[in-house]
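Regression test case RT-17, inverse folding.

Input:
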């Protein structure tokens, strides 16, 4: 058993780097060395892994729903805030 995060760094998806969901962000336009910068998600992911999951008081920010291949792009431009 383990935990898996979607992406180590932000991806080029749907024609841009705008969707930000990586554990680390990289400024591909101005940083030729492509230095990775940790996001707040790094500490949160570390805490979840160390605790072997989320606590009983955890509440998701969105309700569970079926994935939709029809509206796949919308999920990238309407991220959880």
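Golden output:
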């Amino acid at each position: 058993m383990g935990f898996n995060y979607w992406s180590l760094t932000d991806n080029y998806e749907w024609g841009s780097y705008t969707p930000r969901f990586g554990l680390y962000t990289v400024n591909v336009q101005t940083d030729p060395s492509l230095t990775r910068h940790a996001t707040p998600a790094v500490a949160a992911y570390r805490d979840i892994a160390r605790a072997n999951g989320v606590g009983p008081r955890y509440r998701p920010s969105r309700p569970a729903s079926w994935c939709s291949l029809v509206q796949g792009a919308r999920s990238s431009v309407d991220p959880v805030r």
